[in-house]
Write a structure and sequence with these properties.
InterPro entries: DUF1996 (IPR018535). The protein is mostly beta strands. It has one domain. The protein is built from 4 helices and 18 strands. The chain is globular. Bound molecules: 2-acetamido-2-deoxy-beta-D-glucopyranose (NAG) (6 copies).
Length: about 375
């Protein structure tokens, strides 16, 4: 584990020095910073797993496909363009100031007998005590170099309907890491940059150390709109196109001139109970499917509703916050944040063996 961490840090160093973030510091206890920039990395536990999607299917209950949701207890079937922080009483995220919501599609195992089971999630590396959920990163190249999102802001990245590769290579904006060894071992690369173990499609073979999803959001904003009809057009990639994590010093296009912190999600899927090839399809194909019905994995996507209190995100980006070390913010222990929950208002089975995916799995 220690060895793999050192390799990780060596490999990431070149990338990091280009981005203004010093990743040479220990990853474990949020200690020691001091690159020119900032990079928050913190865990958010599950607040609910249910079929709601206030971005794509506002007001619809149930929505088309299942999600795992983290963050503030203001999450609902539709969410106003208001200061979400004011509507919240708790958050399942590590910092009490982060009352945002984050969500992704879930992953299912389709057994040989054509029944489905949800793949459990586990705490990510360095996030002991979390209940599944999402690890969130916010990265900025230097103090005052990014503008924090505004109250009401939301965005979506990825394309739930995609079933083909983007051919972005190491600049791919979503991927699955098939860990060849337990405890996050066997891959020394930054997210989505391992040419062997990071793929835009679902892994084709059992992954002894589980699967980690990464989803990277665009880093430029039009400076005006809190949202857009497809929840994507008000944000954009830098000139030259999508870039690898954590390169955040690109030039924003004139259409989207405002540089915002780069948001990235990380999700750990515990596939250990599903590695028996006797249960895999007889034709040798892989058995995993996203809650959208996507068995390729190319349709992985992420959703974000901003909800940081006041200027807390701006202050943490401008003051060298690094991992969980941030004097601008207030930490809460997992046993506290894990108490923050949203009642499941859809009330359908999310954990049994199911004859079909919730919603039928035919939806984007
Ligand atoms: C966090 O950063 C500050 C400022 O650089 C430093 O004094 C402190 O020791 C760091 N905290 C930890 C836990 O490393
Ligand atoms: C969630 O939305 C429903 C339907 O719009 C509404 O009745 C309910 O009060 C909302 N809940 C919260 C906590 O805002
Ligand atoms: C939200 O709360 C902040 C302080 O916590 C306050 O300044 C602001 O006016 C509130 N906004 C609304 C719309 O109530
Ligand atoms: C289908 O296969 C799974 C995995 O072996 C098993 O747990 C489940 O009971 C089976 N369901 C049916 C209806 O046979
Ligand atoms: C960032 O902006 C603040 C507020 O305008 C200013 O006080 C501070 O000196 C700036 N920091 C840097 C490094 O430019
Ligand atoms: C990003 O930073 C690196 C290293 O500081 C520099 O070489 C590169 O030109 C920068 N890129 C842009 C687009 O500013």
């Amino acid at each position: 584990m220690l060895t793999s961490r050192i390799f990780f840090l060596l490999a990431i160093k070149n990338v990091a020095s280009q981005s203004g973030v010093d990743l040479d510091a220990p990853m474990l206890i949020g200690g020691g910073i001091r690159g020119p920039g900032a990079m928050l990395r913190f865990g958010c536990s599950q607040i609910v797993i249910e079929r709601l999607d206030p971005l794509v299917n506002p007001g619809m209950s149930p929505s088309t496909h299942m999600h795992q949701i983290v963050g503030s207890d203001a999450f609902n079937s539709s969410m106003p363009y208001a200061d979400i922080a004011n509507l919240s009483s708790c958050t399942s995220c590590h910092f009490t100031q982060d009352l945002s919501n984050y969500w992704t599609a879930n992953l299912y195992f389709k057994a040989r007998n054509n029944t489905y089971k949800r793949i459990p999630q586990t705490a990510n590396q360095f996030n002991d005590g979390d209940e599944g959920g999402i690890t969130v990163y916010y990265t900025s190249p230097a103090p005052n170099a990014t503008t924090a999102f505004k109250p009401g802001f939301r965005m979506l990245t990825g394309d739930a309907m995609r079933r083909t590769p983007t051919n972005l290579g190491k600049n791919k904006q979503q991927c699955y890491r098939c860990y060849p060894e337990p405890n996050w071992g066997g891959s020394p690369y930054p997210p989505c940059m391992d040419p062997k173990w990071d793929t835009e499609h679902l892994p084709q073979q059992p992954c002894p150390g589980g699967i980690r999803s990464n989803i990277i959001f665009p880093q430029c904003w039009d400076g005006k709109n809190l949202d857009s009809p497809n929840h994507q057009d008000h944000v954009a990639h830098p000139v030259g196109g999508p870039v690898a994590f954590p390169i955040v010093n690109g030039t924003c296009p004139t259409s989207h001139p405002v540089r915002v912190p780069q948001v990235m999600f990380e999700v750990m899927w515990d596939t250990s109970g599903f590695n028996d090839k006797e249960e895999w399809p007889e034709d040798g194909t892989q058995p995993l499917v996203l809650s959208t019905g996507d068995g390729t994995g190319y349709g992985q996507h992420g959703d974000y509703v901003f909800g940081w209190e006041g200027d807390s995100l701006q202050r943490s980006m401008d003051n060298h916050c690094y991992l969980r070390n941030c004097t601008q913010l207030t930490e809460q222990a997992p046993r506290i944040k894990n108490l923050c929950k949203v009642p499941d208002t859809v009330n359908e089975d999310v954990d049994g063996w199911m004859s079909e995916l919730p919603g039928g799995g035919e939806s984007g």
